[in-house]
Design a protein that fits this description.
With 607 residues, the protein is of the alpha/beta class. It has 16 helices and 29 strands. The strands form 8 sheets. It has a 6-stranded mixed sheet with strand order 6-5-7-8-10-9, sandwiched between helices. Strands 19, 20, 22, 23 and 24 form a 5-stranded antiparallel sheet that branches. The protein is globular, with a radius of gyration of 24 Å.
Length: 607
């Protein structure tokens, strides 16, 4: 595995290498980021030659960090050695008590808790396919994810357990729940969950087993259960929505995740090479990452959790994001890396307590997942003089990172998401293009825009049991992102627009068609359209334009409640407009949302 600490660093007198020069040095034959071409599922693919073979191998190597802190949650601390012992013991329980075999799906539906991490690594280690479910989903949405994935075991906290229980009849494959509690115990730590057996109609009883019951007996020196895992075996299913229908599961392999890990290590190493102050900067201290995004997103899992496990970093977990609590933890835990989505960074900087806290330990502030105001980079350099800002781009389907703009390049081009990782190819194609690979004869044109396509070892293999959707979004290893972009003369990607009908609200993807489908279920709604509304902190907020049926009378509060009963809270519109006239449509019947935004956003919405 490549280690950024072992890579060449500039001396005080040596000229700082360009991005191209640093890339050439690091990817040269025999270097830590050497590349090779492999045929994966019949497609020639450029890969990292020295990447770890599987996620299991990352867990095995993590035990070498011994007594160093790995997980910090409130007043709880778990070392790397203790975590490995728990994960290995839990892995044996999954195989022995629950009958989990390679390829079986094991779901996780809980907040960011230490048990989330332990469940992930234990399941990965035995060859299971981990299904992280959105903790903010309703019970019906969680039931859909469990049923669609065919998960036989689910790790839950008590809040998610309560949501799922009324829907047990919808999940015949689910055999067991492993339950943890997030409530504090007056005696210290957290209260233990209670076990039970739950009856259900149309299927056998379901066992609910306390998490602690499965992890207390693993002896020192425990090893992982024996299982053979290959790089291109399935590892994860992350659910992502689309422009039609219900959420679909993006199936990621071990190679996908470790490729993302290497992409991030590469970016970090390039940044070290190109900073004058890099030599001695880390001082041999352990990195500490403030986890401010959910682990059930690809960013939280692949980019933060996997990377910290591999690099020996301390992962400081928050019960929920709060800027003042974030500042307290930055000072207390000497946080070196934090970020999430741009809104979180802005809230930390804008906190009235910012000047009262010691933030000098911070060396990297990276974010993505939402449109980023170009002025944010200036604010970061002003408030974190020792910190290197970074803005990345990726999707669930790319296992997190594809491009990254960091350091001086980001200061120079604050409106770009950066160049792709060396193993990734990007191209812009006409939005109505029907080929399976980008046109081979496109001349470089920094002004040309089109749909962004991505190819690389981090691109997932497709959607779970969705052959038609897979064929529509993937061709010859290329992912059709649905985002409109341009690529400048230096290879930096600029996201221009989203072709998908989607709103990014504080890092959560809100798919308009899902919200519209929920609104259409209300008997008073004759027609509706959901649009993105600019928001100074969240980036975008959800707005809904409603045409009522003749004689109907319903208000914004009722419609908000109605949607909230069917979809996760982040989907609920916060602004409503009610129209007497029909929505503007083209001859094919499609709502002209750009015209609608232009018409409405200068007016005062009904709230």
């Amino acid at each position: 595995m490549a280690d950024s600490a072992e890579q060449p660093q500039p001396s005080a007198e040596a000229p700082i290498p360009t991005l191209a020069e640093a890339t050439a040095t690091l990817t040269a034959p025999g270097q830590g980021f050497e590349m090779e071409e492999l045929t994966i599922r019949g497609i020639p693919t450029r890969t990292w030659k020295l990447a770890p073979a599987t996620l299991r191998s990352i867990l095995e190597l993590s035990s070498m960090h011994g007594d160093n802190d790995f997980l910090v949650y409130e007043d709880e601390r778990v070392s790397f050695a203790e975590h490995f012992r728990i994960a290995a013991g839990l892995g044996h329980a999954l195989v022995g008590e629950f009958g989990i075999k390679k390829g079986d799906r094991v779901a996780i539906a809980m907040r960011n808790l230490p048990e989330w991490v332990m469940a992930f690594w234990a399941s990965i280690a035995v060859g299971a396919v981990v299904v992280p479910l959105n903790a903010w989903w309703t019970g019906a949405e969680l039931a859909y994810g469990l049923s669609d994935s065919g998960s036989s075991v689910v790790f839950v906290d008590e809040e998610r357990q309560a949501r799922i229980l009324p829907h047990l009849a919808e999940m015949p494959d689910l055999r067991s729940m492993i339950v943890c509690c997030e409530e504090p115990d007056p005696a210290g730590g957290r209260r233990a969950a209670q076990g039970s057996e739950v009856a259900r109609v149309g299927a056998g009883p379901l066992a609910a087993i306390p998490f602690a019951q499965l992890t207390g007996d693993a002896p020192e020196g425990v090893t992982l259960p024996e299982v053979s895992i290959e790089p291109d075996d399935d590892a994860t299913i992350f659910y992502t929505s689309g422009t039609t229908g219900r959420p679909k599961g993006a199936v990621g392999t071990h190679r996908n995740s470790v490729s993302n890990l290497m992409n991030l290590f590469f970016v970090s190493t390039v940044g070290t090479m190109r900073r004058r102050s890099a030599a001695g900067e880390a001082g041999g201290t352990q990195n500490a990452n403030l986890l401010s995004v959910p682990l059930f997103h690809a960013t939280g899992c692949h980019a933060v959790l996997v990377t910290n496990t591999a690099a020996g970093g301390k992962l400081v977990m928050m019960h929920h994001f709060d800027p003042d609590r974030a500042l307290e933890l930055i000072e207390r835990e000497r946080i070196t890396i934090f970020g999430g989505v741009p809104a979180m960074v802005m809230q930390v900087i804008d906190s009235p307590n910012f000047e009262k806290r010691d933030t000098s330990s911070v060396r990297s502030i990276s974010y993505g997942g939402a449109p980023c105001p170009p002025d944010l980079v200036r604010r970061i350099t002003e408030h974190f003089p020792a910190g290197a800002p970074g803005n990345g781009y990726g999707l669930t389907e790319t296992s997190a990172m594809t491009t990254m703009n960091a350091g001086d390049d980001y200061v120079r081009k604050p409106d770009s998401v950066g160049p792709p990782a060396p193993v990734c190819d990007v191209a812009v194609v006409p939005e109505d293009y029907e080929g399976v690979e980008p046109p081979p004869d496109q001349a470089l044109d920094p002004e040309r825009t089109g749909e962004l396509w991505i190819k690389g070892p981090n691109v997932v293999r497709g959607y779970w049991n969705r052959p038609e959707e897979t064929a529509a979004s993937f061709s010859r290893g290329w992912l059709h992102t649905g985002d409109v972009a341009r690529i400048d003369e230096e290879g930096f990607v600029h996201i221009v627009d989203r072709a998908k009908d989607m709103i990014i609200r504080g890092g959560e993807n809100v798919y308009c068609v899902e919200v519209e489908a929920a609104l259409f279920e209300h008997p008073a709604v004759a027609d509706c359209a959901v649009i993105g509304v600019p928001h100074p902190v969240l980036g975008e907020e959800v707005g809904a334009v409603i045409v009522l049926r003749p004689g109907a009378d319903v208000g914004a509060d009722e419609l908000s409640r109605f949607v909230g009963e069917r979809l996760a809270a982040f989907n609920v519109p916060s602004r409503f407009w009610f129209r007497a006239e029909p929505l503007p449509r083209n001859p094919a019947g499609k709502v002209l949302k750009r015209d609608l935004r232009t018409e409405l956003l200068g007016s005062t919405p009904v709230i």
